[in-house]
TrEMBL record:
<protein>
    <submittedName>
        <fullName>Glycosyl transferase family 2</fullName>
    </submittedName>
</protein>
<keyword id="KW-0472">Membrane</keyword>
<dbReference type="GO" id="GO:0016740">
    <property type="term" value="F:transferase activity"/>
</dbReference>
<feature type="transmembrane region" description="Helical">
    <location>
        <begin position="6"/>
        <end position="25"/>
    </location>
</feature>
<feature type="transmembrane region" description="Helical">
    <location>
        <begin position="346"/>
        <end position="364"/>
    </location>
</feature>
<keyword id="KW-0812">Transmembrane</keyword>
<dbReference type="InterPro" id="IPR029044">
    <property type="entry name" value="Nucleotide-diphossugar_trans"/>
</dbReference>
<keyword id="KW-0808">Transferase</keyword>
<keyword id="KW-1133">Transmembrane helix</keyword>
Length: 412
């Protein structure tokens, strides 16, 4: 029967209040700004004018167009893009043209650093040899005491003819031909790092889409509060001069992966980092295989042990997941016990609290996903939020069972 004594009222109110409060401990609720500047307006205006004139059959004033593009080129830096493919001849064939054909009014070069014995990659590069933007170099067959990836990036940086350098992944493609212009427009006075947002292609399983975005929100929020920790994305701009002055990857050369994380963790200070996450500044990454997906998590667990500010970075995710699971657990226990004891008032309050929790998290989550054009059915949000912690636990178990020499280049 329904009772309304003090104890019942307090317990019922507590359940409802906790449902409301724990819904606020949610990465989807914390504001993440989307970059607004995008492509410089002068270039956009010129292209729109040109399209309108072509439609009308009128001649474009070429002199004025050249003047606008020249002015825009003066505000954009000359830039070098580095790719370090390893057995990625197929991806290089598909995606290299996207970068070589970027709409960029200033000078840019694309540097590909490939293994010396990767003949398939060499054959692909020969097809693009006539492109004036392409520069190719190779790394030695063996590298005993240093990650080959880090060695390749270092060689690429040294080969770069421009001070601003982009480290990117050839398994990704730009979302538009204005990608380079968009991300490079952040290279301004006082900035030393620019992180470019990356998302998986639409064919990727929903859970991997969800987890990638769920974790990325913590990193993006840190960027916008000038507390950068790592980089889960596949595009990073930095200055060649600073990279060489501070000896590049020194301090983490032996770790096989984690180039983006180590760079941000070492070089980000105060407000010297900018995030570019507008649609035109986004890279689309291929769907990861099961092996690649597992490797991402295991190598991250190894690398974060050698990064600064790890405890601060992990505090908020742990708090969110503790609140999430604690709230649901409390509601379910209260509902079951109240039903067994016939405490219908508390049972109704527990049911209401559970309904409030689910409804609020669905609304908040769906809105956040929609802002970044991630199309995941709303009903999947709750189980996916819960699954994040349990899958993380599974990765931790696999990491602790793994041979730690698999994560480093030193095999002695």
């Amino acid at each position: 029967m329904f009772t309304f004594d003090n104890t019942t009222i307090i317990l019922s109110a507590t359940l409802v209040i906790l449902a409301l409060l724990t819904s606020l401990l949610n990465p989807f609720l914390r504001k993440v700004r989307i970059s607004e500047h995008g492509v410089p307006a002068s270039v956009t205006d010129t292209e729109e004018t040109k399209d309108a004139d072509d439609t009308a059959g009128e001649a474009v004033n070429t002199t004025e167009e050249v003047d606008v593009i020249s002015a825009t080129a003066c505000t954009l830096p000359s830039i070098s893009i580095i790719f370090t493919p390893h057995d990625n001849a197929g991806e290089l064939t598909k995606y290299l043209p996207f970068y070589l054909n970027q709409n960029y009014p200033a000078d840019f070069q694309v540097i590909v650093v490939a293994p010396q014995n990767d003949y398939e990659t060499s054959d692909v590069l020969k097809r693009f040899a006539d492109n004036p933007h392409l520069y190719t170099t190779f790394i030695p067959d063996s590298s005993r005491y240093m990650s080959k990836k880090k060695l390749a990036v270092t060689l690429g940086v040294k080969a770069a003819k421009h001070d601003w350098v982009i480290m990117a992944d050839i398994c990704c493609r730009p979302m538009s031909e204005n990608w380079l212009m968009t991300i490079a427009s952040n290279c301004t006075e006082g900035k030393e790092l620019v992180v470019g947002y990356t998302r998986y292609e639409d064919e990727t399983p929903d859970y991997r889409h969800f987890e990638r975005y769920y974790q990325a929100r913590y990193f993006m929020r840190e960027y916008q509060h000038h507390k950068a920790y790592g980089c889960p994305f596949n595009a990073l701009i930095f200055r060649k001069s600073i990279f060489l002055k501070r000896e590049g990857f020194r301090g983490n050369l032996k770790y096989l992966r984690g180039e983006y994380d180590f760079m941000v963790n070492k070089y980000a200070k105060g407000d010297n980092l900018v995030l570019e996450n507008s649609p035109e500044g986004t890279l689309i990454e291929e769907t990861p295989t099961g092996k690649v997906w597992l490797g991402i998590h295991l190598f991250y667990m190894e690398n974060r042990q050698h990064m600064e500010r790890t405890v601060q970075h992990r505090f908020l995710p742990y708090l969110d997941q503790t609140a999430l699971h604690g709230n649901y657990l409390l509601q379910c226990i209260a509902l079951i016990v109240a039903l067994l004891l016939g405490q219908w008032t508390i049972a109704a309050a527990a049911g209401l609290a559970l309904l409030l929790s689910v409804t609020l998290r669905l609304i908040i989550g769906k809105k956040a996903l929609r802002r970044f054009n991630i199309d995941i059915p709303a009903w999947k949000i709750i189980p996916y939020e819960i699954a994040v912690a349990w899958k993380h636990l599974g990765y931790r178990i696999k990491y602790h069972r793994a041979n730690k020499y698999d994560f480093i280049s030193h095999k002695l």
